[in-house]
C-alpha cells in the first residue's frame, strides 16, 4: 500500500469510503446470504458482485430465527442452512471468494456467541473487515459490545428511524467503518417507493456523526438506489439481489450492474 | 434513558434487550408507561376490578383428596383453569391491554402456541374494542382449530405462520416482525415471561396474582406454608406467577416441570432448562435448545403450549442460583397425568398442567402425608380433549 493511503486509515472500510469521497462517488454495498443459493454459487456470486462494482459486500450468516428479516432473506437463510452452512462454512466461503473489496459479516448475535472466543479473529483471518449485529443495540450488553469493539473487525452499528437524535450520536461514537441507517420501520424486503421520512432521518444522522452513512432496507431498484445515494455515502441492497440470485447468479450480477449505474447517476 | 445500561433489567446474567434498534424506543416507552401505571392507584383499581368482575378472581384453591392419597401428600390445586377463557393467560392480557390503552395504542398483536394466549388476547381486545392480530403457527392452527375459531368469533385476525417449524417459536418471530413494522401504533402483548426487557418482569408481575392469592389461601387453610410448589414450564409464566410470592420463603421448594417429549435423550423435547445452554432468542439471553453452531433446535411436546425451545430468563436465574429445581416428564407421562386428575378429581387439566400432575405422580412417596403441596392447574383441558380422544387413551 502506498504510504499516502496508509495515512487515510489502516481500516480498509474507512479507506474505501475516503477514496470514494475524494472522487465524489457513493458506495454500492450489496448484501448476500452466505451459502445461498448453495455454497459454490455463493462464492461465484461474491466474486461477480465485486466485478459488478461493489465497494463493500455484506455477507449474511444464516440463522434459524432471523427476526429482523423479511420473507426473501428468511428463505435464503433457510436454504443455506439446509445446505449445512454454519458460521465456519461462511468464513470458508469468504476465504474462497478472495475478494479485494472489504467484507462485512452481517449476523444475529447467537451464532457469533457460539463461535468461540476467537471467532472474530478467525473471521478477520478469513477476510472479513467488519461485523454488523442485528440484535445487539447500543447499551443492550456492554460486555459483549466491548468484545466486538475491541476485535480486529470494524464494529458497524445500526440506526433506525425511531432512534432519537442524541442516541444516534451515542451509537455512532461506538461504531467504526460506517453507520448503517435503516431506511424505514420494518424488516428487510423490497418496496415500491422509498420511505418519505428518509431524507429527514438521514439529515438527523448526518448531523450526529462524521462517519460515512449507508442506507439500507427496502432499496431494490436503480432509481431507489440513486435517490438514496444522494442522502448518504452508500446504499445497501439485499433482498432484491437475493431474490435475483434465487433465479440465477447471472441475474443477480446483472441487477448489481444496473444498481451500480443507478448510484452513479448515469 | 435509552442509552443507559440495561443490566438492571436482568436476572443475574439472563434477560436483556437483544432486539433490532428500531424497537429500543418502544421498549423504553413501555418501561416508562409500566412504571407510571404501577404507581397510579387508578390503574391498580382498574386492573383489580377487571380481575374480579371479568376474569373471576380470586381463583379457588381446591382440595384434591383422592389425588392426595395417590401421591401421599396433601395436594392443593390452584385453579387457574376456572378463569374466564380457561387459563392463567388472561391475567397478563388484562394488564397489558389496560397498559396499551394508557399508551394510546389501538392495535394489539400477539403470538400464540396452544391458542390460550391468543384467545385471552382476543377476548380482552373485544371487551375494549381494540384491533387484534394473532400470529399462530400453521401446525398449531391445525392442532388447535377450536381456539382459532374462538379468536375469529371474537373479532381477531388470526395469521398463519408458515416459516420454520410452524409453531410458537416462529409465531413469536413473526409477531416481532409485525411490531418492528408497526411499532408506532401497535402494542405487542407477549404471552409469557420471555422476550426483551421489560416483558419478562412485567408479565411475571401480572401473573404474580396467582402466587399472592395462593400463598394467602394456603396459609389460611393450613396455618402454614406449602412444602413444595409445582408448576409446568414452557416459557414459564404460570410458574413464575405462582413461584414469585414464595421466592423469599427459603423452606418452600419450587419445582418447574418441563416437557421431556419423547424423552430427554431423544432430541424431541422442550426441556430448555434441563438440556439447553445459554443463548439469545427473541430478545433475551436465557437457556435455549440449540446446536453447537448456535442455530435454534426445534422443540417438541405433546402440548402446544410447552412446545418452545427457549424459556423465561428469570427461570434461568432461579436454576443457576439453585432456588428452583427443574424436572421433566414425557408426553406419555403427561397423558397419564391428564387421565389421573380427570378420574380422581373430576378436573380435566390442560396437557401443559398435566405435566405438573404427572411429575407428582412419579414422585409419590417423597412427601409425608402431612406435607402440603401446591400445584398450579394453569389451564383446563377442554382444548385438548379432541387431540387426546384421537389417541384413544381410554382403551389403554
C-alpha Rg of chain A, in Å?
17 Å
The helix fraction of chain B, in percent, is 40-55%
Q: What is the CATH fold-level name of the largest domain in chain B?
A: Rossmann fold
Terminal Cα separation of chain A, in Å?
31 Å
CATH class of the largest domain in chain B: Alpha Beta
**Uncertain stretches of 5 or more adjacent residues of chain B:** 1-7
Largest sheet of chain A: 8 strands, parallel, barrel
Helix content of chain A: 40-55%
Please give the CATH class of chain A: Alpha Beta
The SSE string of chain A, one letter per element, is HHEHEHHEHHEHEHEHEHEHH
The neighbouring-strand order within the major sheet of chain A is 1-2-3-4-5-6-7-8
What is the CATH architecture assignment of the largest domain in chain B? 3-Layer(aba) Sandwich
When the domains of chain B are counted, the total is 2
| Derived structural class of chain A | alpha/beta
Strand order of the largest sheet of chain B: 3-4-14-9-10-13
Strand content of chain A: 5-15%
Q: Outline the low-pLDDT stretches of chain A.
A: 1-8
CATH homologous superfamily label of chain A: Aldolase class I
Quickly count the domains of chain A: 1
Topology as H/E string of chain B? EEHHEHEHEHEHHEHEHHEHEHEEHEHHEH
Mean pLDDT of chain A: 94
Describe this structure in words.
The complex is a heterodimer of chains A (266) and B (396). In chain A, helix 8 links the parallel strand 4 and strand 5 (154-159). An 8-stranded parallel β-barrel of chain A has the order 1-2-3-4-5-6-7-8, surrounded by 8 helices. Chain A is of the alpha/beta class and 266 residues long. In chain A, helix 5 packs parallel to helix 7 (119-126) and helix 12 (239-247) runs antiparallel to helix 13 (249-264). Chain A has helices spanning 3-6, 12-22, 39-51, 71-82, 87-97, 109-113, 119-126, 142-149, 165-174, 198-208, 222-229, 239-247, 249-264, and strands at residues 27-33, 57-60, 103-107, 130-133, 154-159, 179-182, 213-216, 234-237. Chain A has a single domain (3-264), classed as TIM Barrel. Chain A is built from 13 helices and 8 strands. In chain B, helix 4 crosses helix 9 (199-207) and helix 10 (209-222) packs across helix 11 (237-243). In chain B, 62% of the residues are buried. Chain B has 396 residues and is an alpha/beta fold. Chain B contains 16 helices and 14 strands. Mean pLDDT of chain B is 95; it is low at 1-7. Chain B folds into 2 domains: 11-51 and 89-203, Rossmann fold, CATH 3.40.50; 55-87 and 208-395, Rossmann fold (3-Layer(aba) Sandwich), CATH 3.40.50. Chain B has helices at residues 24-38, 41-55, 65-71, 89-102, 116-128, 138-143, 145-153, 168-181, 199-207, 209-222, 237-243, 272-275, 313-321, 331-345, 351-362, 385-391, and strands spanning 10-11, 14-15, 61-63, 74-79, 107-112, 131-137, 157-161, 186-189, 228-232, 253-261, 277-281, 284-288, 324-330, 372-377. A 6-stranded mixed sheet of chain B has the order 3-4-14-9-10-13, sandwiched between helices. A 4-stranded parallel sheet of chain B has the order 7-6-5-8, sandwiched between helices. Chain B starts with 9 loop residues before the first strand and ends in a 5-residue tail after the last helix. In chain B, strand 9, helix 11 (237-243) and strand 10 (253-261) form a beta-alpha-beta unit. The interface between A and B is large, with 46 and 42 residues.
